[in-house]
Specification:
Length: 97
């Protein structure tokens, strides 16, 4: 929701208020909402800008693209869960070595 709600709000703003073409509005709203999602993780990633914006923020584009394509918020939830779960399991496996 921290990515999808800002996306929908920005998309609505660009299309309705600024009368921008829908495709351009989708691209701009997607990038901005993903960067906002990265900002939300600012403190968790020890203020590392590249990791925050490139890995977390723009990596979120994959999940957002699923929402844009399917309009299914549950699919985005389970995709995010799978991505985070894979990262956690990888970290746990590294600890066991």
């Amino acid at each position: 929701l921290l990515n999808i709600i800002p996306f929908i709000m920005l998309l609505t703003l660009f299309v309705s208020t600024f009368k921008m073409p829908r495709r351009l509005s989708i691209v701009i709203a997607a990038v901005l909402s993903c960067l906002l999602f990265g900002l939300y993780h600012f403190q968790a990633y020890d203020w590392h800008l590249a990791q925050m914006f490139i890995i977390i923020g723009l990596g979120r584009l994959i999940v957002l693209a699923l929402y844009i394509k399917t309009k299914n918020i549950w699919l985005t939830f389970f995709t995010h869960l799978a991505i985070d779960g894979t990262i956690v399991l990888t970290g746990l496996l590294q600890l066991l070595k």
